[in-house]
Amino acid sequence: MTVLGAIFLPALPPERLRGVARAADEAGLEELWLWEDCFKESGIAAAAAALAWTERLRVGVGLLPVPLRNVALTAMELATMHRLFPDRFSVAVGHGVQGWMEQVGARVESPMTLLREYVSALRALLGGETVTVSGRYVRLDGVKLDWPPPSGAAVLAGAVGPGTLRLSGEVADGTVLVSSTTTDGVRRARALVDEGRAAGQVTGDHRVVLFAHAATGPDAQARLAAYQQRWGEEPGRFGVAGEFGHMQVVPDGRRCECGNRGCWEQYASGNVLVREAREMAAANSPVAHPILERAGGDVSAINGPLITAAAQDGDPAARELFEEIGQWLGVGIANLAAAFDPGTFVIGGGLSEAGDLLIGPARDSFSRSLTGRRFRPEARVVQARLGNTAGLVGAADLARPFARRFRRARARARDRRARHPGTL
Question: Could you tell me the fold of the domain covering 5-158?
Answer without folding.
Answer: TIM Barrel (3.20.20)
